[in-house]
Amino acid sequence: MKSMSCKQLGGACDLEFRASTFEEMAELSKKHGMEMHQNQDSAHLEAMQAMQELMQKPGDMEKWYESKRQEFEALSDI
Where exactly are the structural domains of the chain? Predict the structure, then answer.
């Protein structure tokens, strides 16, 4: 099991997610993001806008995702 924060995953807060795989971690982050979107949390909405802009550039989102996967893999188990 590894731990990453919302901020580490491109978000806006220090909420910690714990998961065994990067795919699980990404899903937890996505769920949190949807909740923050529903709550219209301004800091998270800004972070989401930045991610939207990243998705507009071919290949950039894939590079970002892979860098986060590598960051996850380098973490020590908790």
Answer: 2-74
